[in-house]
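Q: What residues go here?
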């Protein structure tokens, strides 16, 4: 009877190891704890954080937080078909929309105007503690914060969405 139980445990353990890639060792009457096979890479989990964001923030003063990968930082001199962000605090930053839609969460302080590309773009900004969504005109300039009203405070750009 004991041998039958051991064989059943070994058979089930073998199936588990084959289907999950987890090694299970049987020693005597006890089953050892599970462990990931040596040399296996960690599981892949996408967190949508922007690659190289820390370096970009240090060099340019713009915080690229996360996105879907369809709006990317671009060289402003590379094309006219870019979303442009003008700030008193940092140099102009430009973004290319790859594909039909895109999303990018950012933190860019003291933004005063945005220039759209040929996509419908919505920008989420905060001005004096109030958050609002602004439609950015296609291929033209849209003032925000103190760029729209000199009595208004500076705007912080929080998000770009293109469709």
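A:
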């Amino acid at each position: 009877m004991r041998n039958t139980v051991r064989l059943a445990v070994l058979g089930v353990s073998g199936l588990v190891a084959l289907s999950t890639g987890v090694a299970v060792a049987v020693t005597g009457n006890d089953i050892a704890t599970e462990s990931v096979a040596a040399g296996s890479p960690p599981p892949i989990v996408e967190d949508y954080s922007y690659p190289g964001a820390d370096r970009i923030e240090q060099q340019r003063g713009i915080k690229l937080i996360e996105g879907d990968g369809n709006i990317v930082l671009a060289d402003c001199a590379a094309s006219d078909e870019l979303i442009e962000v003008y700030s008193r605090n940092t140099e102009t930053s430009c973004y290319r929309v790859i594909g039909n839609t895109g999303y990018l969460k950012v933190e860019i302080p003291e933004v005063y105007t945005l220039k759209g590309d040929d996509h419908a773009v919505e920008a989420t900004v905060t001005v004096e503690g109030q958050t609002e969504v602004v439609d950015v005109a296609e291929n033209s300039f849209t003032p925000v914060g103190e760029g729209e009203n000199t009595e208004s405070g500076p705007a912080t750009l929080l998000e770009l969405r293109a469709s």
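A: Context that may help when evaluating the design: The chain is about 15% helix and 40% strand. The helical segments are 2-20, 53-60.
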